[in-house]
Write a structure and sequence with these properties.
- With 314 residues, this protein is mostly helical.
- It has a single domain (15-312), classed as Mitochondrial carrier fold.
- Helices cover 68% and strands 1% of the residues.
- The chain has helices at 13-43, 56-67, 76-101, 111-141, 156-167, 184-211, 219-249, 262-273, 282-312; strands at 252-253, 256-257.
- The protein has a two-stranded antiparallel ribbon with strand order 1-2.
- A hairpin with a 2-residue loop joins strand 1 and strand 2 (256-257).
- Helix 3 (76-101) packs antiparallel against helix 4 (111-141), helix 4 packs across helix 5 (156-167) and helix 4 packs across helix 6.
- The chain is globular, with a radius of gyration of 20 Å.
- The protein starts with 12 loop residues before the first helix and ends with a helix.
- The relative contact order is 0.15.
Length: 314
């Protein structure tokens, strides 16, 4: 009788989660300034067609001029905590489910299953990471406000404590007013789109590149697959990201939330700022998401590679 195919050895689940978080945090150190610019541009011209920042370069120059070099790293602590929660969860769950649904000989699941796994991992990761996300959006938006309106959070933990004390713990998930105006729901919706696009397109692109015979499973292959994945993800997720950013930064007006729900954000943005404003900040978004995707997957692949060499194969 033919022997049953043996699945390749894999790292423990705890290591998968740890490597996912470390990869995301390492990438964030490099791309935090781009995340800041993206958030500022998405909030620029809020409620009108007059934009505060004309281009990404104009935004960078304005931030450097008004807030100094340290200003471009505003919100770094929140960005790192977001990766430690969101990315740890999503990449860990994705890797675990990916391996569980692969065939006995190691053949990966098809694209539809990859997308489904990515959506599941993204939604769960987003729920876990929403408090840090709310802090990140507020901290990166603070510098564009008049000095008397700034929240002045000193770091992510100060932000979380003050939000909890001043607005209630449920504000960290934006469920204080009503479920439909939740910051958690658009964050999870964005995560579903991002992860379905990013994780599935990365796996599919990497597989397609390897199938050409011109690539090996090395950093060049990981880089090319990541750049393709980043472009697909940017185009697909920007409208949902605008909704998330606006809701998480919204204020109360006459005792009522600025937006009723995600659809209300879309209608107001398109009506007041134009249809293509849904992709406002595309350049810094891709400039941030592209390298972040590249660095995250490269760090993750390299950590998995070294773990396999020194622990699984030794």
């Amino acid at each position: 009788m033919a022997a049953e195919p043996v699945k390749p050895k894999t790292s423990p689940k705890s290591i998968k989660f740890l490597f996912g978080g470390l990869a995301g945090m390492g990438a964030t150190v490099f791309v935090q300034p781009l995340d800041l610019v993206k958030n500022r541009m998405q909030l620029s011209g809020q409620g009108s067609k007059a934009r505060e920042y004309k281009t990404s370069l104009h935004a960078v120059a304005s931030i450097l001029r008004n807030e100094g070099f340290r200003g471009i790293y505003t919100g770094l602590s929140a960005g790192l905590l977001r990766q430690a929660t969101y990315t740890t969860t999503r990449l860990g769950i994705y890797t675990v489910l990916f391996e569980r649904l692969s065939k006995a000989d190691g053949t990966p699941p098809n694209f539809f299953i990859k997308a489904l796994i990515g959506m599941t991992a993204g939604a769960i990761g987003a729920f876990v990471g929403t408090p840090a996300e709310v802090a990140l959006i507020r901290m990166t938006a603070d510098g564009r406000l008049p000095s008397d309106q700034r929240r002045g959070y000193t770091n992510v933990f100060n932000a979380l404590i003050r939000i909890t004390r001043e607005e209630g713990v449920t504000t960290l998930w934006r469920v204080r007013h009503c479920l439909t105006s939740s910051g958690c729901i658009p964050t999870m919706a964005r995560a579903v789109v991002v992860n379905a696009a990013q994780l599935a397109s990365y796996s599919q692109s990497k597989q397609a590149l390897l199938d050409t015979g011109y690539f090996r499973d090395d950093i060049l292959c990981h880089f090319c697959a990541s750049m393709i994945s980043g472009l697909v993800t940017t185009a697909a997720s920007m409208p949902v990201d605008i909704v998330k950013t606006r809701i998480q930064n919204m204020k109360m007006i006459d005792g009522k939330p600025e937006y009723k729900n995600g659809l209300d954000v879309l209608v107001k943005v398109v009506g007041r700022e134009g249809f293509f404003s849904l992709w406002k900040g595309f350049t810094p978004y891709y400039a941030r998401l592209g390298p972040h995707t590249v660095l995250t997957f490269i760090f993750l692949e390299q950590m998995n590679k070294f773990y396999k060499i020194y622990f699984l194969d030794s």
